[in-house]
Amino acid sequence: MLLTILGCSGSLPGPAGPASGYLLRADGFHLVVDFGSGVLAALQTHCDPFAVDALLFSHLHPDHCSDFTALTVLRRYHTHPPHDTSARRLPVHGPSDAADRFARAYAENARELATTDLSDVFEFNDLTEDTIHIGPFDVTAVRVAHPCEAYGFRIATDTASLVYTGDTGPCDAVRRLALGADVLLAESTWSHTEDRPRGQHMSGHQAGEAAAAGGVGRLLLTHIAPWTDPLGVLAEARATFTGPVELAEQGATYRIG
Question: Reading across the β-sheet that carries 245-247, which strands appear in turn?
């Protein structure tokens, strides 16, 4: 399994890179997890967007999904698409209101919303707390601690496992998902203080705790807000997890397993 960081800036795109988006590849299959601001541009430096085989959304805050409308334009109106998109709608796996939310984002005005339907280019599938098969990946979704319907994922092949927290505060769901994973890709939005709002995000300290509790092989810190010191978050994580810890690097590719 190969993981490419398309975007890792927390809460909004930063001065040097897009918001959340991750490309996973195995056995020739391309799965993109989250599709925030700037991710479509970054994706085009790594693969043809028409080569993407499925999309998976942790939740529908704009920094995780706002480039979906641009992808819709590309798939609908590209004059010479490299593949026959009319013969295959792109599978989209996400929270239960994804089809409606994306239609509302795409509609030109309130009058046209009633007739906006994106099912000509996308096949929408609602996530539940279950394991589904997406190409070569077994994807286990669990609800995590965030103010909206939000999921963390364990994404596995026969030889590798990646756990992605999505956006979440510390919770048992993340710790259960992380057990024995090769890599934990953990959001670490802010530095650690005891008065941070609960049920929203994790600090580097808390991401390290989750990695330690799960006995993961490696911790990658992501979704660090542009106003947060990344080296401070890294130091926090290293203080609570003794295994390998890195900051997710924009554009980098990591081999999992």
Answer: 131-134, 137-143, 151-156, 161-164, 183-187, 219-222, 245-247
